[in-house]
Structure formats: structure tokens, C-alpha cells
Here is the input.
Amino acid sequence: MKNEVVDLDAEERNREEKKNDVDFAIFERDDLFKIEANKTYEVGFAGIRNTEIEVQDRQTGERVKKPALELDVDYLNGEKVQKKLHITSKNFIAQIKILYTQNLLFNTIFQITRQGEGYATKYFIVAIKKKENKEK
Here is the structure.
């Protein structure tokens, strides 16, 4: 009998990805913040940029590049952090860009909630308080 090395974490990720009703999977990284469904987060942002992220097409299994908005997260649920948030939802990107053009994005703490899965996903973002002054 041949010994075989099995990556249990990869198998678990594959099972989790198949549960979600979306056509692509975003590859996980330690520095990424992922908004989970039906959870509410308090989030502050420090930077914004357009980017492309590599995702796996669920139908073909191929890696493809997808346009995304990358946000630097500096505050998460009461803690100072250094994480990134990649957004591919066109509606959520539109909401973020409005906050950016109104000069609210970097000086406000927001409450963010995601509801639904796949194409039925909806994001809700509400300003809840001003960020504290960094220099005291």
C-alpha cells in the first residue's frame, strides 16, 4: 500500500468552498480580514486602492484575476490591527466609494454586516462614531 500525504486543511477548505453558492473562491491569507455572513463588525479604514486579486473559478478550477477594491483595516472590533479587506461586490464598492468621496472613510468607525451568500449577498455599512485622534 502506497503512503499518501493528505492536506486536511485543503480538503476542509474545499468542502467549505463547495458549501457556498458562489462561482469563485478567494485564496486565504493571514493578513486578510473576511466579513462572514450574519456577523456585525466595527471597522476603521486607513487606506484604499484598486487592485486585482487571484481567485479560483469554482466551475473550471482555474485561477483567474478579478478586479477588487483593497482597503487597509486599522481598527477591528475595538482593537488596532493591520489587515486588508478585498471587496469584489460592485454594490459594496459603490457604498465605500461614496464614503471616500465624502471624506468619511478614514476618520469614522463603521458597523459592517453581510447577509446572504453568493450573488444574493448584501452588505450594510453604517457610520457609528468618529475615529479617535491618533496623536494624543
Summary: The first strand starts at residue 24 and ends at 26.
